């Protein structure tokens, strides 16, 4: 088992645990403890912070992955690479502060339609952006050193545990919303501090610069690459958050909260993509640097099919239990029914593309990513602007689904033109058919006893039938391998 497979499995375990924690907070805590306006505020703050931090790092997050092989030399303390990663984003953060105070009044006006909460707490954007910014930077450095686990643990597990604690404290009136939102931001500030402690413990905290290593040619290549990936990264993040931002400005914080819950549920299926994405970029970058296209193709195809195998399993489980989900949530969230379906389909489309974006970003053709993403932004803004006023949160979801489809088709076609490799095979057909059949069967079965018993029974049946089908059709070598390990373990336990 290669390093991608090993760390992907470990990341997958951590992320799934994080998903479980996320489900607890998203379905059982946030909707019942916070008002829709309060919850909507947290989502708006995060969306703005994620986009701004993507701008503020000035391309350094991607530079860390692509250029680390050139700097890598432990005995030379990686030639001062970490120093560059820490200093350059500071410039971007200061630029953000300047622009923030210029557009302060515009932001307040834009996001105070149905509540004054944004006006009251919008200054918390400053520490929130700083925390997200430097967590991403330091995490990229750790990932470049072929270690994706610490960042995954901090972001997927520890962060959610801290947020759950805050919600419980608020539920029992130990703290009020003001203290909660300050604690909410503090959790994101804690993340980079913990990563600093980690890299120090691993003796990777090399902050002394090595100006002799930094040549004019290197600066030119760093800045050129950084400029394009910066714009591409910003554009991609805008696309990921444009629906929430436009909903917040058009419909208000209440619809934003409802959409966020539905989006989270529909996005659960993206877990395998996230696990692979933690380690794949550094590996793909190394293979492209060494012109090992055959290995890139292997990763490309395996990432697509393995993501789809797990993604369709989760999609099938969610859709089969969709009525049960709305039995759990407060009544006002029932309007999000179709949002979950549309978002789920959009994530499957994104997963089908495998690591197409990673290949482009770490290749000599990285500039194309900017063009593709800018076109995506235009399409996404137009669709959201047209569909949200007419269809509300469902319109935002349709816009996201359509935009991601066009985006992935464009990227996959470009990778094929340049490298003559593509991720899709005929194995996708039985995956889709099995998923459709299981969903149709599930809809014919009445509720079994209580909501929670029904969820458990449906989920177990789907897991067993789907897994057996994947093994029967020999969809994925990795799936077969893990299934065999499970059977051997069970046989050992029985005997």
Question: What can you see in these coordinates?
Answer:
By secondary structure, the protein is mostly helical. The chain has one domain. The chain is 81% helix and 0% strand. It is built from 20 helices and no strands. Helix 3 (60-71) packs parallel to helix 7 and helix 4 packs antiparallel against helix 7. It is globular, with a radius of gyration of 23 Å. The two termini are 28 Å apart.
Q: Report how far the terminal alpha carbons are from each other.
A: 28 Å
**Order of H and E elements:** HHHHHHHHHHHHHHHHHHHH
Q: Give the uncertain stretches in residue-range form.
A: none
The domain count comes to: 1
Rg to the nearest angstrom? 23 Å
Described by the principal axes of the CA atoms, the overall outline is globular
Number of strands: 0
Structural class: mainly alpha
Percent range for β-strand residues: under 5%
The profile of the biggest β sheet is: none
- The overall average pLDDT, rounded, is 82
The helix content, as a percent range, equals over 70%
Individual helix count: 20
